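Thread: quick sanity check before group meeting

JM: Hey all, I'm pulling together slides for Thursday and realized we never actually wrote out the predicted structure for the chain we discussed last week. Dropping the sequence here so it's in one place. If anyone has concerns about the input, flag it before I start.
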Amino acid sequence: MAAGRGRTQPARRAELAESAGRVGGRSADDRHHGDRDEPVARLIQSGAVRHGRGRDAQAPVRLLPGPLLDEAIALFRAKSPKATPGRLYFDILTATTFRRGAWQHADLKAEQGKAPVYLYEIDWETPVDGGKWGSPHSVEHPFVFDNVALSESMVGASQSEPQKIAEQISPTWIAFARTGNPNNPAIPHWPPYTTAERATMVFDTQSKAETHFREDERLLTAKAAEKDVL
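JM (edit): ok, ran it. Output follows.
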């Protein structure tokens, strides 16, 4: 769904709520931004940002103005002290676009109270091209379909770590498709998402469900939305 400027005004909120309500079947919803570094692949491939290059030092200024930008850079720099300017750009962009949209949809869906909501993030980093992609858009596909042996270009030559993740994610997607509940013996307990706890399944070689996952980032993006800058 097109986000426009992403304002959470009454009309916009109603539109989002209507969209959330259109999810079919049992209406149980795996609403998510999906991968930790969603925009990396498209921006590197397009040449918009050269990952890790010094010339990207001012790239984040296009995301947030003034004090909010300073706050965002300080927040993400504290989390990743050795991050390059390009890496910071990707981290801030992911939070202010993909994660913010995922949180919005998950909140709206949970508020409907008609079906459980399940939020997840893939945090495993692919080693392809020296690891510059991080956890990019679509990296979960080999895990969902359990075909990492055919996905070297996405997950790398070694199948050890990717196969561990596939053995968690593939049965989880099957369980969700069959029952509307992703829980199964392959993963830790995955509680539904609520606005009180915001449980998120973080998939990696050792996956875990976390409450209030990335809460500092969510609060920052919410503050930006209140100031009408997203």
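AS: nice. The CA atoms of residues 139 and 154 lie 7 Å apart. The first strand starts at residue 34 and ends at 35.
JM: adding both to the slides.
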